[in-house]
Amino acid sequence: MASLKLHGLPMSSCTTRVMICLHEKGVEFELVPVDLFTAQHKQPDFLSKNPFGQIPVLEDGDLTIFESRAVTEYVSKKFKDQGTDLIRQDSLEESTLVKIWAEVESQQFNPVINPIIYQFFVAPLQGKSLDQAIIDENLEKLGKVLDVYEEKLGKTKYLAGDFYSLADLHHMPYIFYFMKTPWAHVVNERPKVKAWWEDISSRDAFKKVAEGMKFGDN
Amino acid sequence: MASLKLHGLPMSSCTTRVMICLHEKGVEFELVPVDLFTAQHKQPDFLSKNPFGQIPVLEDGDLTIFESRAVTEYVSKKFKDQGTDLIRQDSLEESTLVKIWAEVESQQFNPVINPIIYQFFVAPLQGKSLDQAIIDENLEKLGKVLDVYEEKLGKTKYLAGDFYSLADLHHMPYIFYFMKTPWAHVVNERPKVKAWWEDISSRDAFKKVAEGMKFGDN
Fold this sequence. Notes:
The structure is a homodimer of 218-residue chains. With 218 residues, chain A is of the alpha+beta class.
């Protein structure tokens, strides 16, 4: 039996961020489904694990970890000596480059792609009509962020350097879903970004997880 | 001469996030002002340091670091053995708790306090009228985030545990400015959050930096 329990869903972008990481590290885990439709994540038992009532949550023995980007760092550190080195902690310079570009994902990329994904996939399920003005505003901002990536990826193979790291990995769930929208050209018209996406999305750890990312497929 | 150069401004919340950290660690640095009014941060020289054209940027020899939360982690690691231990890197459990609550600041707190600060302090300077609906929506969300903090701070003295860390520090610039708005009661009506703020804002490292945080004082 796997000692790590990941509470979440295989179609949730934040859950899959952690699952990709666990596969990269070759760590066994048990995925414990959380029933969002009965609001299981807002019940006392779940709130005792994550007071913000969000998936995913990782339980490893007595330690309970929430916020997907904290979980990936924990997994990368705890299983330092197996699988892909995702944080380069032996080098202060390389680990800092990973941290910088992980922060870029968090502060520059996520805030502009999140509203697009929400409008396209989630709003219709909530009976709301898609707000094109929000999409257009954020597509423009996303293009500017990806312009910076295009230049960076002309200098190094991956965002933090010539090595795949958490900085790349953290982007994957949202780009995967974004490529299913009518605006995939925003990625595809930037050749370095397109090649980077094709490279990282062809990794085995990601392909295992992508199979379950069926949100919006119906 | 200090070997670390911090490009930024003493009234900028992201610059001060780094300055507080440098003072906590007892690290000398040179603050190099960036003239935002002439858009110095959008000129090629600055963009070569941070392609997103934002302050702050830390230069330490050949290493150039942007994104304030990446800079604080770098400073905390590089100067591990001096000043306040802000990341607890010797304990995987404690450093993970710091990371969780630093991510809470980044993903839960910052996105809801940021629009309030923007509406109150920045929009008027840009000739825009304050959008009360945006403020109200985000005040409600902020209250819910601080409800979680109130419960957590009833169990531990600081967010990550009974020790001050980056998880607390990262909140300070925005809370400082928020306390100057008409909505400071959102903090003050939560006794544990109020006591936490009074505690962390009385630290010497913060007081040194707060003197320069004059945005909106005119």
